[in-house]
Amino acid sequence: MSNKIVAWIDERFPLTAIIKHEMTEYPVPRNLSYWWNFGFLAMTVLVIQLVSGIFLAMHFKADAGMAFDSVEHIMRNVNYGWLIRYMHSTGASAFFIVIFIHMARTLYYGSYRAPRELMWWTGQVLLIMLMATAFMGYLLPWGQMSYWGAQVITNLFGATPFIGPEVVVWLRGDYSVGDPTISRFFSLHYLMPFLVVGMIVIHLVALHMVKSSNPSGINLAAKDNIPFHPYFTIKDIFSIGVFLIIFSALMFFTPNSFIEADNYIPANPLKTPAHIVPEWYFLPFYAILRAVPDLLGGVVAMVLSLLVFAAMPYLDRSSIPGGARYRPFYRALFYVFAVDVFILAYVGAKPPEGFLVPLGQLATFIYFGLFILLPFLSSKEEKWLIKRGLPPKVQELVDAEVAQRAQHKADRAAKRAARRKK
Amino acid sequence: MKNNFFMPVSFLVIISGLFIGGNVLASSSAVPLAKVDIELNQEAYKRGAKVAIETCNLCHELKYIRYRNLLDIGFTQQEVDGFRGNKSMEEVLAASMTPPLAKKAFGMIPPDLSLMAKARKKGDRYIYTLMTSYHEVADNQYDNKLFPGIRMPDIFALSVETDEKRRAMQDQQIKDVTSFLVWASDPHADTRRTIGTYVIAYLVLLTFLLWLWKRKVWSRLDD
Predict the structure, then answer these.
(1) Ranges of each domain in chain A
(2) Which residues pair with B144 in a beta bridge?
(3) Every domain of chain B and the residues it spans
(4) 20 to 30 A from A231, CA-CA: which of A30, A124, A256, B188?
């Protein structure tokens, strides 16, 4: 019977073909470590956020006069409203933890390199969309930090040349953050996740085209690939279990560690909090913003600090596979970068006083310095590693890539010469 | 394989660093908060509620707590009736003093207390420290070390009380009020922790089974 139904569908929709192509016959390197589970985990968190968010929206009032009270109403009077709300607020932080690990893995293993540039770039777009969604969602509880955070961030758009003040008013719908702002942020906060889903589809289509990278960095032979289902379905489901244990521990026992105390004070446009801090996941970027004394310069630096990742496939000039694994210089850069981000987060969380100002500037300098250093260091490193002798298997791959690069260069030169002749 | 060991370590450093950066290091206060342990049980909530309703609630509102909510911490209907007089069970615990009167007396409307324990960093310790930080600056003039220039009078009179027995009693009352305010700021917190324990126990078992299943599926590969 079920076979008949499947056959009926297959004549009208490629159900079996899709399952085969994307699941039961989709090849995945068998040597993936658990660091490769975080993409799937990010989707899990997205589902948590979508479901909890839809239920929150049923009780939330996007109105400057009612928003704060409606959140308290959810927390106190709605059945299990506290669970839905804490799930959503903890989920926001969990989303960024998972995404940052996902990105760190990509950087560490050099998974951004050809042919996975589009995956890396769609990932960048997803990160920025996620940040926008989180930022707009943070306004909705209409607490002091919500209000002043939104005030500060929308103010940044005032740095736009010529039309700055107009852009700020256009974004807020008013001269300062107010009722029109919360209505539009709510609308967009509800819209964005669906755009994110669309972007994830593109991200995944690209993945199924180029297939997963793996810790060795070497393209595996067919025999070293195993089907996604059942091997990675069960591995991913197991990792959801581990994730949910950690998530539940945070959500049930310390949900307020993700919420600034000031945000339990209703927004008051007349009273600026002593110290406005963004959510933890914005701290490193916030520190970069403040490191530059000029507003426009700061905004440009902050935007660049996000966009600069997109250049990684080109900044990294080495063809040694496996990312940081086989590359001591690159590995050192990775760890310096990690520590630097940590320092930036620390600086971003504190008021800009005393030694923290030069420290933030130094950390910002190192942040960008590492990206600038990478092309020189990576090509030097490649030469040094080749001179020292690579494992034969790796050497083969490097030779192939070097040859390909030379061929590409020659092709371009030939084309140019041909054009000149014309 | 050395790198595989260091990588998780470095991630943990980044992630924990972000948390520490975001939460712990961001808080600093001139007066250190007293390291008290606030009881979290119905008896303490009830004792605290009595004090809070008879004293704090005269000037401060508890705008997210309704009389009906008092049943949740174990008060009987008669006891709640005693608190509410002829007000409805659905009414919130508004301050006895009307806002215009409060404004006249204090120059401002005393803040709502129902979220106070969450609206300050380490709210329970903050409330306890605030109430015990009054000191006499001149005859009948008080100030507060944690909140200089505070307009609230020294309700529990700890700044002038010298009798040790009465001091201990008042200290206990302040602790009880703090317990009650912690409950009021998050009335479902105890339920949350209970449910959380069961959920995690269930998830640990489920995840263990999933791990066995994963091993079983992957064992097909090992030949």
Answers:
(1) 22-268, 277-388, 390-422
(2) B134
(3) 34-185, 188-218
(4) A124
Catalytic residue among A111, A260, A262, A279: A279
Beta bridge partners of A27: A227
Interface test with B, best of A68, A71, A342 (most B CBs within 10 A): A342
Alpha-carbon distances, residue A387 vs A321, A331, A382, B114, B160 (angstroms):
16, 19, 9, 70, 82
- Which of B21, B199, B213 is the closest to A346 by Cβ? B21
pTM of the model: 0.91
How far, CA to CA in Å, does A158 sit from each of A129, A162, A298? 21, 9, 12
| H/E element, A298 | helix A295-307
Distance from CA of B163 to the nearest CA of A (A): 36
User: For the domain B34-185, what is the CATH code?
Assistant: 1.10.760.10
CATH, range A22-268: 1.20.810.10
- Write out pLDDT tens, residues B55-76: 999 999 999 999 999 999 999 9
Q: Which of A245, A252, A277 sits opposite B26 (nearest CB)?
A: A277
Q: Measured between beta carbons, which residues in chain A are less than 8 angstroms from residue B185? A: 264
The class (CATH top level) of A277-388 is mainly alpha
Q: What is the predicted pLDDT for the residue at B25?
A: 41
Asked if B174 contacts B34 with a C-beta cutoff of 8 angstroms, the reply is no
From the list A76, A256, A350, the residue facing B25 with the nearest CB is A350
What residues of chain B lie within 8 A of the CB of A249, using their CB? 196, 200
Cα distance from N-terminal residue to C-terminal residue, chain A: 68
Which value does ipTM take for this structure?
A: 0.90
